[in-house]
Amino acid sequence: MAQVRRYGMTLLVSALICVYTLTNAGRFHIVDEVSLFAVTESVGLRGDVDTNAIAWTQWVNSPGEVLGAFGPDGQVYSKKGPAPAFLALPWYLLWLAIARLGIGVGLLQATLLWNGIVTAFTAALLWGTAVRLGYNDRVGLVLGLLFGLGTIAWPYANHFFGEPLSALSLLACFYGLLAWSQDGRRRWMWLAGSAAGVALATVTAHGVLIAILAGYGLWCVRRRWQEGVPLRRWLALGLAFGAPLALAGLVLLAYNFLRFGNPLDTGYHFDQGEGFTTPILQGAWGLLLSPYRGVFWHTPLLVAGLVAWPAFWRRHRAEATLIAVLSLALVGLYSTWWMWWGGFAWGPRFLVPLTPFWCLPLVIPLARLDVNLRRWQARRRRMSVRALRPLVAALGGQGLALAAVAGLSMVVQLLAVSLNYVNYEIQLRSIFPTDWSDPLRFGPPAQGMGDFLYSPVFGQLRLWGQGFVANTDLAWLRADGTVLWLVVWVGTAALVTLAVGMGLWWRGMDASGGPELPSRPARILVLLVPLVLMGTWLGEAGQDPHYGQPDRGYRAALASICAQEKSGDALITVAPFAYQVPMNWLGGLCREALPIFGYAANSMEHPEAQQVLGDVLETSRRIWFITGGLPANAPENTVERWLSQHAYKAIDLWYDDYRLLSYATPPLLAQAPVHRLDVTLTGPEAAPVQLLTVRAPSRAVANDVIPVELTYQLLQPVDRPLRWFVQLLGPDGVPVALLDTAPDDGYASFSGLPPGEALTERAGLQLPTSLPPGSYTLIAGLYDPEMPAAAQRLRTPTGGDFVVLGNVVVQ
């Protein structure tokens, strides 16, 4: 029987994974997801825990959008619990290995499928919990389906939040304690303790719930051990539960110390408005009953669970009491949280961890319904009754009501996953105006019960009326009307296959001779079906223009970087509205794990950014820099201006609206001596410019960037638009690397420079990857682009049109 149950659970898990994959948007909805993914990416690619890739999010208007905190080193770290990011690592690394085989798999999109797996296993564990409580497998299957398809667990299965993992870990802790109370095996205590540790490392505040579960565990021990028990057995049990929990606590302390230098610092900004400051009744109203976030609006099925709770309490008093106490604790906790509504979210996301517990009382009406259906089936076999009326009678009023509420709840979840609820959240800010200028007053729309028609539940219908395709949240249906038919057909075939398998399993549970286990190929097929669908989905969803086109724009710039990357490179970006592109593709394109620092144009106004980029400048050999939607030398681009003053630009290329630059860094000049030049350049209409000194390395290797630092002075004011050229000449006098630039890398002009002062110009030369070894000549000079071609270059006293700076030996 256990094998048949496992097969049924496999069917359930596979079916739910297929549903979640088909309804996945393939993109982030909320910045919280981005912060968690940035941790997974950092650990998976570089073994770091920073979230510097989205450093720009630290300087936004609302504190609710600040998902990180600065460490002592100025780097950004997520304030979210690490468990969701860490436990998603094997899944991320699996797809990273596949992507590096040259298969076009988007790592961000692949990781977004992870919580679908977590939620599907939560449904299976809920089934197992029902069986532990004494209910049959048919009840367990239906309970798992109701949880997986009829609650807010479905929408959150498609987000990269920590709440799905919280739900699984808390339920696993309860299951372990319940199982131990029945058979006394110590492994169940280890499971409970390990799950509690995961819950703690997901959300530290869940320590309150863990304490309640531990109290339930003590009650289980007392119930099982009525008589005196040796101390060693108590110690063994305490070790089994407490050791993994203590280990999780130590991991959290170490994680905090690694990020912030203080084991007790979690990164939350309690001095900036965060904290438990909301009046509890206001928050409780919002979480439970308000049209805006009320749990019963977003999961009508839980009304049935609430109605069933008294009967559940009469049969399972300890477990029902546990659910009630957990509910009071979590609702009470988040009712006082300053952002109790959870930002842009679907329903009360902070209550997602309680969803499986709130579904558990449904075993009572489901068991009664199962008995009635079995009687009806037996009567039908005897009397060949096929009319609908006997079936309706068998269901009874309670069964019909449960079916109606379950159907309504599934429709609500289907609306949530089909249409992008964030679009309506934005509209609500106009319907119920929010003071965006004051971060601490930023809050949810003030909805009373009279505003129920403005509930996000009805808002999904409004979005549908405004245009289903335009507001779609399905990866296989794009806003431009494109349908990914391959995903649709493979998904349909997968669901039909699993539905047939589930139907056969259900019928087998009624067989007089007992259920039979299908053949091994059939069981393997059940495992393969969701994998095939996920692979198909990833292959097709990766073509979403949201993530760029392979040979255009941002992706082309990334491909260019990865074709030239080497150890010691770093990547800085000023493209905050396209952060998803490198997150999706960079890991698969590059063999070297480039540290990435994502800033906004004005980020260098902040000392933390200056500190971090100062460190990058000293620890990297080459810096890649990508901007998006900005012209060259944009005055507001403080990052580019800073690089022009501290690094040595070598490459400046455009890829549609994106610009790729590369810079050499000062450490490459650490051993280079300063050589005097004292050469004056003059032109027909240009005042003389004197080159004073040069500093450049005398040795290099192919694919290196050679930094060149020139000092010069204007002997008189210059009113011509002069430009520098720096070149590396081969033995035949043909340039193998060159750079053309204005003063200060374009942030200044000669007409604005003061005469008589020593000035510095920084330049870099990118050597080709296939450059042959040998001796090359480094030259520099000035030219006037407005003069005729023959007279553009300024001349030396000997008549030359460039100055030899020295030789570079390429090894």
UniProtKB/TrEMBL annotation:
Tell me where the transmembrane regions lie.
Answer: 85-105, 112-133, 139-157, 188-213, 234-258, 295-313, 320-338, 350-371, 391-416, 483-506, 522-539
Look up keyword Transmembrane and say if it applies.
yes
Designated name of the protein = Glycosyltransferase RgtA/B/C/D-like domain-containing protein
Which keywords label this protein?
Membrane, Transmembrane, Transmembrane helix
Tell me yes or no: is Membrane among this UniProt entry's keywords: yes
Tell me the organism: Litorilinea aerophila
